[in-house]
């Protein structure tokens, strides 16, 4: 046993973050902590790592501890990228002799190679790891247990993230079945009580056709029946009173975000790029590539850190000459660095300012993005970074845009919010192009994919969560000037062959032979670069 927590509690003011009666962590365990933003995940991690004291209870640690802290935003401004900083923290934690490692958002800013590096270290580690993460695919591949923080309570689920979701779904089904049974029984009791009342009312009424003596006899018999019915009614009331109340499980109705009339596009291809190339300084990001954005598609743009994903988005938004666009394309763009919101306005006011939909629909969308009830009246100045991102995306989803471009839309979001964004993207009837490192988001929402790899952009489709690329890496038509250059060189080569075959007295055969050999080399080099 590496760690034992007993009767630990932690609160902020009157809000309880967690209460755990007993928790033991053993060698070899891979534990993922999940929950809403501000639910207390990082605080729990710090209490277990002895970096913070719980309000009550004890934490006994029987091992040396390693820590991978979440990277503060300010470190992104150093000479290292966010991914490089995270990778350095991972290396440091696994380099020392420890039996227990705590990690807070260890996949933050990591691309696919960085995540593979982290997962390889986890696989080779003999001790236990406890990690807070919002990366579902990562939790799926690494975890043996999921710990959920919800409304101040802590729940333990064996298995990986998929197993956790299955158990949560089963809990939902069980809750629905119990609620249905409760409602059926309550209805049955109320109907029985109503029947008793009808019978009681009949006893009280003496039929008009009866004489006085008959009425007295009827009344005497009725009193006995009335007592029986009163007992029955009281028993039914007690049954109803002692029934355990079951709350109706919340199940959101399907939503579709329709485009404003006249904004829907009828072209099959909305954006087409031929010979797309980009160099930053001496570094080639991509060259001679072809891209197509299909109408109503949800296209994920993926690639390693520094491969040029955001650069490609900016080229499209600038409507550069390498691209052609369908008529009436109207972009809506979201990125972490773009400020779309007015801090002086509420959540609802910000979204309504650009909305082509009515307030009822906007409220429904905001509720889906977890802004419920009075939350829509919060000023955006009090919102967290993740909450601001959701409001910005809601603003674009209901705007008059018909092509949305999102750069890392799920950064800083908790798992519940990520799922809400997924549903919103799927519900949107327009076209979406989005950059993401979230594999699960891509598999759950994308219909198509652009991948920047080896200085080229590959296109593919996503079918049932599986990516199907073109059979060969994208090697598209060369740039126009290179085509023309090749044509001139090949024409000259044909002329040289003719002269060498039937040389005239004026021709210098050695010079022609040398030019022929030099030209062959140049043609091969040009073709290789294309």
TrEMBL record:
Please state every residue range assigned to the domain named ABC transporter: 3-176, 271-479
Instruction: Tell me the InterPro entries matching this sequence.
Output: AAA+_ATPase (IPR003593), ABC_transporter-like_ATP-bd (IPR003439), ABC_transporter-like_CS (IPR017871), ABCF (IPR050611), P-loop_NTPase (IPR027417)
Record SMART domains: AAA (SM00382)
Q: Which residues form a coiled coil?
A: 165-199, 479-529
Q: Which PROSITE patterns match?
A: ABC_TRANSPORTER_1, ABC_TRANSPORTER_2
Keywords in alphabetical order: ATP-binding, Coiled coil, Nucleotide-binding, Repeat
Per its record, what are the GO molecular function terms? Answer: ATP binding; ATP hydrolysis activity
Query: What Gene3D superfamilies does the record point to?
Result: P-loop containing nucleotide triphosphate hydrolases (3.40.50.300)
The domain of life for this entry's organism is Bacteria
**The keyword Lyase is annotated on this UniProt entry:** no
A Pfam family the protein falls into: ABC_tran
Name of this protein: Macrolide transport system ATP-binding/permease protein
- Native organism: Pisciglobus halotolerans
Starting at the broadest rank, the lineage of the source organism is:
Bacteria, Bacillati, Bacillota, Bacilli, Lactobacillales
